[in-house]
Write a structure and sequence with these properties.
It is built from 15 helices and 17 strands. By secondary structure, it is an alpha+beta fold. Helix 2 packs antiparallel against helix 3 and helix 12 crosses helix 14. It starts with a strand and ends with a helix. It binds adenosine-5'-diphosphate, magnesium ion and zinc ion (ZN).
């Protein structure tokens, strides 16, 4: 088998998380009773007039600024005509020749190396509805119809399934940090089309196929691998790859051709007569660019170089912008970076995962967390008790100190009182006490454990350890 160069370009669709839809005031919300988030505008009744959602334009410009696109001072809307029941108007309002963002690039790491993928454009358009297939019928749900969607088109700079997935993860991370999209694959809020061709070194790019609507990173990977194998086989057996639109079936893991690829002219694009062009001033664009947060890649780099965290810790902390924000806030309030990182990665993220179904992954503020950490540091509560504190203050504005008092968790730091308890425990356990005197250090933790049990964990572990050792050695 001869070697082919794999060339991939992605078209990535992300739903923007605006309050309302792109051209009407219907709520932009996943799920809901079918067709409950609809109105005559998004249901495509004749004669209705669209009204542009400015927030969606702002979010698209934000996306462009985040990846270094040129933002268009003048862009316009076009009708992309096609007849399919998921789009009741029979055209999609989109942008054709004058998109909001042109160019840009995304940098990411793959296999230990830095890689850059150039973007061709980002344009804003409306999402289509959903077809629901039942036994012998197909129903339509227009709740998603008219939801603002950005389409990000890459240059053909991607050369493997690994690179495609790493790129998508980076892009999703950028958009999450910008706060413009949740990029939740399972809710279809990010979807990708894969354009793929094979060529021999030194030769022009081969004929590509486009596999549509992949809605998980895993199916992007599998579709790419299957398509590389299929095209290789076609070429090796002397055939020609046909330019076509393909579908990938997740269940069987195979792709199949749907139709010969449509051209722009098949869509009979023409300017949307019902909407004014979008005109942005330098000041508009500068204001949006200035409000961009520090993005994932920059934060990860800062955490390792300035705060001395490991690559692993920096990766975990930056995986969710809410977590990274919490970490930054906590450190700003004086917490030791490594200690804050450890606590967030173990306790906060664990709790966020189990209680975050409502999308809230972080239920405390930096102030609350730094309070917990300093209480632990000062020995007023131990780590075990801190979990109860966390439960108590999660998604409330109660301070950690207040919770400690309410829960009666403040540690006993009274050495005299602890000494009396330790003496009782030693007297009650002559065997292990003897073992210690014979040099078995391990029984120390047995005694500390007994003490913790007797005090319901409310003893300062440092004082406890020191005292047990001292009294056993008497
Ligand atoms: P269309 O308008 O027909 O969708 P575009 O020129 O916009 O075509 O390209 C769509 C996507 O296909 C882009 O991501 C682009 O990088 C990619 N692409 C173009 N040519 C090739 C090729 N020969 N092999 C792989 N990908 C390609
Ligand atoms: Mg296209
Ligand atoms: Zn509507």
């Amino acid at each position: 088998m001869s070697d082919y160069i794999v060339t991939i370009g992605l078209e990535v669709h992300c739903e923007l998380k605006t309050e309302s839809k792109l051209f009407c005031s219907c709520v932009n919300k996943f799920g809901g009773e079918p067709n409950s988030h609809t109105c005559p505008i998004c249901a495509g009744h004749p004669g209705v007039m669209p009204v542009l959602n400015k927030k969606a334009v702002e979010y698209t410009v934000k996306a462009g600024c985040a990846i270094g696109s040129r933002i268009s001072r003048f862009s316009k809307w076009d009708r992309k005509n096609y007849f399919y029941p998921d789009l009741p108007k029979a055209w999609q309002t989109s942008q054709y020749d004058l998109p909001l963002c042109v160019g840009g690039e995304v940098r990411f790491d793959v296999g230990g190396e830095e890689k850059t993928v150039r973007l061709n454009r980002i344009h804003l358009e409306e999402d289509a509805g959903k077809l629901v297939h039942g036994a012998g019928f197909t129903a339509v749900d227009y709740n998603r119809c008219g939801v603002p969607l950005i389409e990000c088109v890459t240059e053909p700079d991607i050369h493997s399934a690994d690179e495609a997935v790493a790129f998508l993860e980076e892009l999703a991370g950028i958009f999450r940090y910008c706060g413009i999209s949740d990029c939740k694959m399972q809710e279809g809020s990010i979807r990708a089309d894969v354009n793929l061709s094979l060529s021999r070194p030194g030769e022009p790019l081969g004929t590509r196929t486009e596999t549509k609507n992949l809605n998980s990173f895993r199916s992007v990977r599998r579709a790419i691998e299957a398509e590389i194998a299929r095209q290789t086989e076609v070429l090796e057996s002397g055939g020609k790859v046909v330019q076509e639109t393909r579908h990938f079936d997740d269940a069987s893991g195979t792709g199949y051709g749907m139709r010969s690829k449509e051209d722009a002219q098949d869509y009979r694009y023409f300017p949307e007569p019902d909407l004014m062009p979008v005109v942005l001033s330098d000041a508009d664009i500068d204001a949006i660019a200035a409000a961009l947060p520090e993005l994932k890649r920059a934060r990860r780099a800062r955490y390792t170089s300035e705060l001395g965290l490991s690559d692993y810790d920096a990766d975990v902390l930056t995986s969710d912008p809410a977590v990274a924000d919490l970490f930054d806030e906590t450190v700003k309030l004086g917490a030791v970076a490594k200690k804050a990182a450890n606590y967030i990665m173990s306790e906060i993220m664990r709790k966020g995962k189990t209680e975050g179904e409502d999308g809230v992954t972080v239920g405390v503020t930096g102030a609350q967390l730094s309070d917990i950490l300093s209480l632990v540091e000062k020995g007023e509560i131990n780590l075990v008790a801190s979990k109860d504190v966390l439960d108590k203050i999660w998604q409330t504005d109660m301070s950690a100190s207040e919770a400690v008092d309410k829960l009666g968790l403040r540690q006993n730091n009274d050495a005299g009182e602890i000494e009396k308890l330790v003496r009782d425990i030693i007297a009650a356990n002559p065997g292990p006490a003897d073992d210690f005197r014979k040099g078995n250090e391990k029984v120390l933790s047995f005694f500390v454990g007994q003490l913790m049990k007797a005090t319901k964990g409310k003893t300062n572990p440092k004082i406890a350890g020191d005292l047990v050792r001292k009294l056993l050695s008497e």
